[in-house]
Every structure is written in structure tokens, then in C-alpha cells.
Amino acid sequence: MTTPQEPDGRPYYAEPPVAGVPYAEPPAAQPYQQYAPPAYPPPPGYGQQPPYPYPYPYPYPPARSTNGMAIASMVLGILWVYWIGSILALIFGYLALNEIRRSKQAGEGMAIAGIVLGWIGVGVLAIVLLMVATRGFR
Length: 138
Known about the structure:
Pfam families: DUF4190 (PF13828). By secondary structure, this protein is mainly alpha-helical.
């Protein structure tokens, strides 16, 4: 099916594309013109050296050292080596907590973790000994 055409070859529209305006050719393209921004005077102080930056207000605080007994307490609490490690984790953990509070060292969380794991190991040891003792007397 073909669309009807005007005598000059353009398509015929029952109604113009825009109400009341006949079909018109698009305007010819304008040649490219480069944009030139308007000339403004430079701001005051332009071209001068900036002022010196402010120094840092305070130096970084020195890094705190981690208590070695706190590390040992946590490691022994994890390993527990036949419940000897649990008992040593308790001893090192409590000694580390006292030393950390006295000297403001880091590692309080590791010491507490070692103490908790040490008490869990001692509790398991008590349950195992209780089971062995009750089974042995039957």
C-alpha cells in the first residue's frame, strides 16, 4: 500500500503535522561557530601566592604496645593442650589484665578472651573428670 503524494513528491497528509501550518522544509543548517566566553576581569588576588597552610594541631599519638602475656593467654586458651593450656591461659590472662591496667598497654580484649577460653577449658575438664569418676565407681 502506498501513501498518497503531492505533485512535487512530498507525502500528502490529511491534516498538516501542526494544526493550521502547512508542511515546510526544515531550516538550512547554520555553519559551526566556535563559542567564545565573555571576557571578565580576573578576581581580586588572582596570580598571588596562596597563604601557608595551617599545621596539624597535634601529632599522632604513639602506638601502644600489646601485652605479650595477653597474646599468650589467648593462644593457650584456643589451643588448650590437654587442659594444661586452659590453666595457663587463666594465669597469664589475669596477670596480663593487672599489668595492662597498671601500664596502659593494649591487649585487654585478648586477655579477657584468654580468661574466658581458660574457664571454658577448666569447665570441660571438670565435666570429663566427673564423668570418669561416676563411670569408674559402677
